[in-house]
Amino acid sequence: MFGLEKPAGRRAPGGSGGFPKMASVGDFNVLSSSIPATKVELSVSCRNLLDRDTFSKSDPICVLYTQAIGNKEWREFGRTEVIDNTLNPDFVRKFIMDYFFEERENLRFDFYDVDSKSPNLSKHDFLGQMFCTLGEIVGSQGSRLEKSIVGIPGKKCGTVIVTAEELGCCRDSVLMQFCANKLDKKDFFGKSDPFLVFHRSNEDGSFTICHKTEVIKNTLNPVWQAFKISVRALCNGDYDRTIKVEVYDWDRDGSHDFIGEFTTSYRELSRGQSQFNVYEVINPKKKGKKKKYVNSGTVTLLSFLIETEVSFLDYIKGGTQINFTVAIDFTASNGNPSQPTSLHYMNPYQLNAYGMALKAVGEIIQDYDSDKMFPALGFGARLPPDGRVSHEFALNGNPQNPYCHGIDGVMEAYYRSLKSVQLYGPTNFAPVINHVARYAASVKDGSQYFVLLIITDGVISDMAQTKESIVNASKLPMSIIIVGVGPAEFDAMEELDGDVVRISSRGKFAERDIVQFVPFRDYIDRSGNHVLSMARLAKDVLAEIPEQFLSYMRVRGIKPSPAPPPYTPPIHVLQTQI
C-alpha cells in the first residue's frame, strides 16, 4: 500500500456522478461480479472540529472504515496522518478505493484527537464520525460531499468535506527540489521557519492539498530536500492544470504564518531549472495595501526529474517468482487436537482455523510460484523419537527437503504432523523468520521474493529476538504475514505490524515495513460461509505485499526484467514451384 492508501475497498453504490459505468464481467468469483470501473482518490478536510485539548487545539486524525463483504461488520480501511494543533485540518494522505457503479460501498469516517503514540484508538479522544456511501460522494456536485460530523450528543462536532477524484492511469512520478530567496521575515526574534504546501486544482476550481515539504528552521533562504510525488497526485495527469504553492512560516502552536503564494503547472515545471521556473511569492493582502510592494521573496525550481513508476505486475511479467513458506504454531495452548475445542481439531467435515488461513493465503500466492513447491514448517512441538523441542521443523518430516507439492501437499503434511508430534511450547517466531531470511539473503537480484505466513494462536515468547529478526529481514526480499487464530489478545502482534510505529531493535529501525498482522476472528463469516471468510482474509493480508515488494526493488534500484515476447506460432511459407 502506498503508505495507508490500501488499494482495497471494493464496491460502491449508484450515483449520477461523473464516473463512467463499466459492464459486468459475469460471476467469475464470489467476491466481485465486475471489474472496478475506476479507482477514486478520497481527500478529507474538516472545519470547526471539537477542541478536546486544554492548552492547545486538537491534533486530529481521520480513520476510514468500510463494511465487510456480505455483512454489516465495519473494518478499518486506513488512516490519514495526524495534524498538530488545528480544528480545520486538510489531510494530505488520501484513501484510494475501487469504485463500482452498480454496488453499494458504505463508508464511515471517524475522527480522533491524538494524545500519544499508541495505535490503539481507544487511547485517544473521539471527535465524532460521519457515515456516507462512496456513491454519495461521487454523485455530489463536483464529487464533493460536505456533511455534519455526529456522534457526541449535545455537541456541534463541525463538518467534514470529502472529495472524490477519478484517478488517471498516469504512472509517472517526478523528483523535484526547490529553494527560496529573501522570504519575508515573520518571527520576532529570529528569521522565518519556512515550508511549502502544494495544492492541485480540481475541476470545480477548488484546491486539494497534495504535498508539504519539511520545515527549514531560521532562514529566509531555505533549500528544501528533493521530494518525489506521483504526477497523478500532483495534477491527476493533466499537465496544464493549475498547481498552487503556498509558503508558510512554521509556528509551534499550529497557527502558521502565511508568507505568500504562486501558481504553476506540470508543463511549466517540466522545463526544469530555467528562468521560467523562478517564481515571485506574492501575498495578496500586502499587495493590496502597499503601493511599493514587489514580492515576499522568490522560489526557484532547482531540479525536475521524471521517473516512470513500475508496477508489481511488471516484475511478475518479467519473471520474478514469489516463494511462499508457511510456519504453523504447534504450542500446547492450541488444545489437544483430538478435542473439538482445539484450534488444531481435525474435523472431517470442515477446515479448522489453521487450515482456512493457510488455504486462503496460499491459494492466491501459489499462482506466482511456477514450481508450486512450498516449504512448510512447524514450531513449538516435541518431535519423535526423542521428544526434543523444535521451533523450526519440517511438517513432512524431512529436514533436508521441507518442500510440499502445492497447498494441498502442505495441508496433508500439516495433518500428518498433528498425529506424530506433541504440542508443547514456548511460542518462538525468530527461528522460522531466520530460516526464510537465509534463503532470501542468497537471492538479492530481484528474481525472487519470499513471503512467510506464520499462523499462531497467541502470545509470543521471544519478542526481542523476533524484533531483531524482522529488522534484519527488512533489508531482504521478503515479507511476513502473521494470522492470529483463536480468542487470545494479540496486542503484541500489533507492535510487529509496523503500520503506525516502525519496528526497531537495539536502536536500529526496520528499513521497510514488512509485517502484516491480522486476527482471523475479524474475518469469520457468521453465517458459516467459509469461502467468504477466506476470501476476505486473503484480500486483506495480501493487500500490502505488492507495495512491500516494490519498496524493496526501489531501495535496491532493481528494475523489472523485460517481459518475454508473446508466443507467435511459426508461419509456414508455401513455396510454389515455377
From TrEMBL:
Gene Ontology cellular-component terms listed: plasma membrane
SMART domains named among the record's database cross-references: C2, VWA
UniProt xrefs under InterPro entries: C2_dom (IPR000008), C2_domain_sf (IPR035892), C2B_Copine (IPR037768), Copine (IPR045052), Copine_C (IPR010734), VWF_A (IPR002035), vWFA_dom_sf (IPR036465)
This protein's UniProt keywords: Calcium, Metal-binding, Phosphoprotein, Repeat
Swiss-Prot/TrEMBL GO biological process terms: cellular response to calcium ion
Domain C2 residue range list: 20-147, 156-279
Residue span(s) of domain VWFA: 323-524
GO molecular function: calcium-dependent phospholipid binding; metal ion binding
Family that this chain belongs to: Belongs to the copine family.
Record function comment: Probable calcium-dependent phospholipid-binding protein that may play a role in calcium-mediated intracellular processes.
Record's protein name: Copine-8
